[in-house]
Amino acid sequence: MQSKVDLIEGFRNPSHIKALAAIIKQECKRKINIMEVCGGHTHTIMKFGLPQILPDLIEFIHGPGCPVCIMPKERIDHAIALASMPDTILATLGDMIRIPGSATSLQKLRADGKDIRSLYSPLDVLKIAKENPDKKVIFFAIGFETTTPMSAVLIDTVIKENIQNIFFHINHVTVPEPIDVIMSGKDVKIDAFLGPSHVSVITGYKIYEPIVQKYATPIVVAGFEPSDVMESILRIVRQFNAGEKRFVDNQYARAVSRDGNLKAQALVQKYMHKRDHFRWRGIGDIANSALKLKTQFAHIDAEVVFADLLPTQELDDHKLCICGKILSGNAKPFDCKVFGKACIPANPMGSCMVSSEGACAAYFKYGKLASKGA
Amino acid sequence: MDKKILLSHGGGGEETQSLIKDLFFKYFENEILLKLEDAASLHVSENIAFTTDSFTVSPLFFNGGNIGKLSIAGTINDLVMMGAKPLYLTCSFMIEEGFGYGDLETIVQSMQQEMAKSGVLIVAGDTKVVPKGGVDGLFINTSGIGEIIYKGISAHNLKPNHSIIVSHEVGNHGACILALREDLQLETELKTDCASLWKPVEALIQAGIKIVALRDATRGGLSAVLNEWAQTSGVCIEVDEAKIPVAPQVRGICEMLGFEPYEFANEGTMLICVEAGEEEKTLEVLARFEETKKAALIGSVNDKYKNRVILNTPWGSSRFLEPPKGELLPRIC
Q1: What separation, in Å, do the N-terminal and C-terminal C-alpha atoms of chain A show?
Q2: What's the CATH superfamily of A73-173+260-309?
């Protein structure tokens, strides 16, 4: 008989999680501030209440790794301008449609009668374009290295099949550059990082080697289940206990290698290259931190084709919002004056409340019982 | 060509009469309905429960049910949750021009089958046919009257030490509809829990169980009902995550898409609050029925907080189970 690992319950075994908590408690000798870069990890940490079973010496700082949260308002205004064009369908992923731009959100625009689709897979765009040959279909592409290859597959199909009515607005961003910016800032309190495993499935874990060297800060590539996160924390504790040597550790060896998925990387590089800079909501301008279509694909690049319609004004968050401080580890969501009052998931004032993966949104949903700052 | 519903079927003339006689009477036939008066004349006791609900689910057909079954089970369950024996229903069809006659017959047939399980009758009805685009295929409204045979069931009565029981796995209907609507190609089979709950509730009443509150966990799921109860009674409800039954395929779809099974809709799953000491007997009775045999004791009421629901994990952490917010799924029932 073939044995099957239960991919959910197998990594949520209460006795494993309790045992890991006990070992961490026993071995952890110093205060360690750990930034989980990815909003998915923030979600796991808060939903499963991990801070409650970890020693006080371990503190989490919530990073900028949520593609919806870091989208600056002016680019949401791009989506709104594109979706407002006649005979247009705008398609995007996740809770992008909820995010307010300067005047409205895609969700409200949809209620006004504009055709806006929230997809689970970018390839659904092909079906929509075929069913609506008289309309322009614009794919507002978002996500880190994990989702970029899916956009690349869609671009590849559009180019090879010469599909005329699909355009791309590319907002793909990358993980290492914002980590570099955060670590090079003033008053940085981060001792170690949890790296998102799904990003490294594509990129490999080697992308973090320069950062570990530059800042002598351990990074553990970690899975998203509670046992994965607990084991990764133990690996961080043990790296500190073992001496001065700092390295990238790979907890998610079941799917991550040093080099990653070379085929996916090649496909992304075929169609996209780095932008000189990209503005991250809550953090600001970061050089080389995002991708765009190469110039030979300008004919399907919505930023080029519809350039005249796209607003260029940069828009900052409300001045009461402290997302910048939260993302650098200098504040917690509960420290914010507007958290849970003027700023709520239904009407976010700042980036961290925007998506369900944002730090403030996770505190709002899961963190009210545990007063101990997650 | 397949027979279709035409605007003339709703015009009140000959075609309307033939639709009523050939289709609706064929399945819904009973003495009161066949009198063909302007309104049904009924004999009911003093204590009645009266409810109404409209059904707009898309798609109309899904694994384990269709809009017709849902429209009967939904209204029956609303009556049953008040401790009432369901007796009479009314039924209005709003049909889009061009709707398949065969599909309508399948739907009407499943309504008849679902009514037979609880012994209820449709005693009045109405049919409208609207031009293409006026409705999405078919909408159904049903209203129902039942005789309250167990008094005092109320969301206001929860007190510390009461126990909370869920009658079935949670989230099956919501997950099933989500997978269909989004055309998710899954290898596992998701099936709605759509079912009338009169038989198990009747058995609980007959067994003398001291029921405090009853609520079917429809839109907003388990989380909505628990939060509503906690707020209405001003108490804290504490539940153990490990005890809440969730089908593996529902857990899978939730993990994949970032939902919580506790927020998914159900159409044949109820929460039961009973007095302390009644738990074992309640579970024994529920185990006798197919639709409630997976029932489980999931938690209890206390006064640690007011108006709050606490979810405990099996490894010793806990969080508030917040009431569902925002857009989860449009038109799931």
Answers
A1: 43
A2: HypD, alpha/beta domain 2 (3.40.50.11740)
